[in-house]
# Entry
Amino acid sequence: MNDLIRRIVAAGALLATAGLALAGADEHSRLKEPRVPAELASKGVIYHTISGKQAQVTFTSNAPLENIVGKSNLIVGYAVAGPADAPARLVGAQWLLPVRSLATGLPLRDEHMADEEWLDAESFPVIRFTLKKVEEVKPIKSGEGYSTWSATFVGEMSMHGVDRPIRVTDAKLSFLEASDKTAQIAGGDLLFLKCAYEVRMSEFGIRHKDVPDKVSDLIRLEQMLRLSTEVQGQDRRRQG
Amino acid sequence: VKPTTAAHGISGLLVLLAVGAWLATGREGYTRWPDEKLEASDAPSSAAEEALLADIGFETEDDRAAQLDVESRFAFGLVPGGPDLPHLPSIAAAGALAIVISSATVARDAMRRRRQRADALASSSSEIKP
# Structure
C-alpha cells in the first residue's frame, strides 16, 4: 500500500514538473520588447507591437507533397513614427521573432525547423529586423483621424547568425488616432503595418540536403503587425 | 467468400477508405491533428477591425482571401505526419497495410498449395510401395 502511495506521489511530481517545464518553454519563447534607443525615442511617437493575438507573420515554402505554411504571433518590437505630415517615414523600428514560436501544424516539423540543421534555435533563437531607412513613401488614403501610406523599407535582417540587407517594397502603413473604433482593437493610437517579401535560406547560411529538391530555398513571408502607442498588458512589465 | 478473396477485398477497401478520407479532409500531404501551438499562434480578427481596415484603405476582402493560412484541424494525409501513432494513419500507411495483408494471404496460399502437393506426392509414393 505504501509503495502504491509512493508511486502515485512520484507520478504526480513528474506531471507537475512536466507542466512547469512546458509553461517555462512558452515563457521562454515570449520575448521582451527591445529597448527603443534614446536617440530615436526623442524623434517621434513610439508604437509598440501588440503580440500574442492575431498571426503577425505567415511564411510559406514550396515542397513536393504540400506547401509548408507556418505562422507566429509572438513578434515584439517598436516603430518610431516620422514627422506629423508623413508619419510613414519611420525614423526607426526593430522587430524580433522567436524562432521557436513558428507553428506549422505538425509538431515534428516544428521541431525539425528549430533544430541545428535548419534555423538552429538553440544558437540563434531570434530572427531580427532592424529598419535603416524608409523610401518611396506615398499617401494612399487619408481621412479624419487616419492616414494610409505605402513605402519601401530598407533594413537589415538577422537570421541564423547572418546579417543581410533587405529591401521590402510596397509595405502598407495606416496610422489611426485613438477613437471608439480603435479602442475595440487596442488602447492608444494605432499603427497597422503590412508587407510581403521573400528570403533565400541559403543567403542566411542555411544549407540542408533537402534544399532545393524537397524544400524550396525561397521562403515567402507575409506580415501584418498591429502596434499601439500604449504598451499592452503583460508587455508593460517586460519592456526593456 | 473464400478467405483469400476476403483478404484482397479488405485490402482494396482499406485503400479506398484511405483515399476517401484524404479527399474529404482537404487532400493534404501529411497527416495532422488540431495543434495547440498553431491555435495559440493566431486569433481571428474581429468584424469591427475588418470593417475599420477596409474603411481606411488598408485591407480589402480580396486581400484577406489571398492571405496564406494553415488551420489547426485534422487532415488525413498522403504520408504520416510523424512517427507517433496518431500521425501514422495515411494513404501510404493504408497502402502498406493492404500490401502486407494481400502478400500474407498470397504467401499463405502458396505455402498451403506447396504442402498439399507435398502431401499428395507423399501419399502417392506410399501407395506405389508394395
Notes: The first strand of chain A starts at residue 46 and ends at 49. Chain A is about 20% helix and 40% strand. The mean pLDDT of chain A is 87.
